[in-house]
């Protein structure tokens, strides 16, 4: 039945009003978020860079969200154990992952079979920090400069050992880049995280490692010696420390972006809220100081920019891993 225009117009207005009212009612009846504690999984052991960053942002997030943000360390298999736990969690906004860039950009190229697909099963939420890796050596080595160290490794093939946060971790890949670029031979000793690797470096059980920041605190006291940064450019915190490229070791770039992910399917509104709160948390002087002590840089980004950064890192690392033929059983 067709209504006259003088009647149709009020009916249309009324229907629009009802639609708007229904929409408002639906929004009013929607379950608010958050209403309970939020779990922030760290897929590496306590004491490492990812753990330090998680414990740095969690108090500020708790205050902003009015709910506890609880850090839950789930280390194992170079981040796969914790990553899998989050990938399989309910996408309801109460489980997030704070991980290294390597666990997302490197693992898929090293492991023939993973229990989850980082690109499919995890969705980017927010970048936290650009984390660099630094070449640290035990002071028992008779070297004080990068050039002396490279010469020493070359003169003692297979005699030196280096620790890493695990097979396929960013520190491991940086060391492989270093060895391949310089034609060097050293023995890899993988650990279950950067913290235990650092402990053995301090004890002299391994002679060097590419450290994602926690070891820098031991440089001033002479317990460790800082020789270089495995980055495309010098770190602002250490302007006098050379890059490996400056010693002729090209294509050694171990930078990675640590950040937060959620299970795929998490509502976009929750992702946007978390991104906004994390970016705000990164402006706090206390957190920036924590990142600075790690030798990194706070890196607030939009969700889209963070996703694009991880895709670019994945392509860069994947290219090197294929060329070098690196695999993990």
UniProtKB/TrEMBL annotation:
Keywords: Signal. SUPFAM superfamilies: Periplasmic binding protein-like II. Residues 1-26 form the signal peptide. It comes from the Bacteria. Transmembrane segments: none annotated. It holds the Pfam family TctC. Belongs to the UPF0065 (bug) family. This is Tripartite tricarboxylate transporter substrate binding protein. It comes from Cupriavidus oxalaticus. The lineage of its organism: Bacteria, Pseudomonadati, Pseudomonadota, Betaproteobacteria, Burkholderiales.
């Amino acid at each position: 039945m067709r209504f006259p225009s003088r009647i149709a117009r009020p009916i249309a207005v009324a229907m629009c009003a009802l639609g708007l009212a229904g929409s408002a009612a639906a929004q009013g009846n929607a379950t608010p978020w958050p209403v309970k504690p939020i779990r922030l999984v760290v897929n590496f052991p306590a004491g490492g860079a990812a753990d330090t960053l998680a414990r740095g942002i969690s108090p500020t997030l708790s205050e902003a969200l009015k709910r506890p943000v609880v850090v839950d360390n789930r280390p194992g298999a170079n981040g796969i154990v914790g990553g899998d736990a989050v990938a399989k969690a309910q996408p309801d906004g109460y489980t997030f992952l704070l991980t290294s860039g390597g666990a997302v950009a490197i693992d898929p190229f090293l492991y023939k079979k993973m229990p989850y697909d980082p690109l499919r099963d995890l969705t980017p939420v927010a970048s936290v920090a650009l984390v660099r890796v630094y070449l640290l050596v035990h002071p028992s080595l008779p070297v004080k400069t990068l050039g002396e160290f490279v010469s020493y490794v070359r003169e003692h093939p297979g005699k030196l050992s280096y620790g890493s946060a695990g097979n396929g971790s960013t520190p491991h890949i940086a060391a492989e880049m270093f060895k391949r670029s310089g034609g060097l031979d050293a023995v890899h000793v993988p650990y279950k995280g950067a913290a235990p690797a650092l402990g053995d470096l301090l004890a002299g059980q391994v002679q060097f490692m590419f450290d994602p920041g926690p070891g820098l605190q031991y440089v001033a006291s002479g317990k460790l010696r800082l020789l270089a940064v495995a980055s495309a450019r010098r770190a602002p915190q250490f302007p006098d420390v050379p890059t490996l490229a400056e010693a002729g070791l090209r294509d050694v770039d171990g930078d990675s972006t640590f950040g937060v992910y959620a299970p795929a399917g998490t509502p976009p509104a929750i992702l946007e809220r978390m991104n906004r709160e994390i970016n705000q948390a990164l402006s706090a002087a206390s957190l920036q100081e924590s990142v600075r002590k790690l030798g990194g840089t706070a890196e607030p980004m939009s969700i889209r920019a963070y996703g694009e950064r991880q895709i670019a890192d994945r392509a860069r690392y994947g290219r090197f891993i294929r060329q070098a033929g690196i695999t993990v059983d």
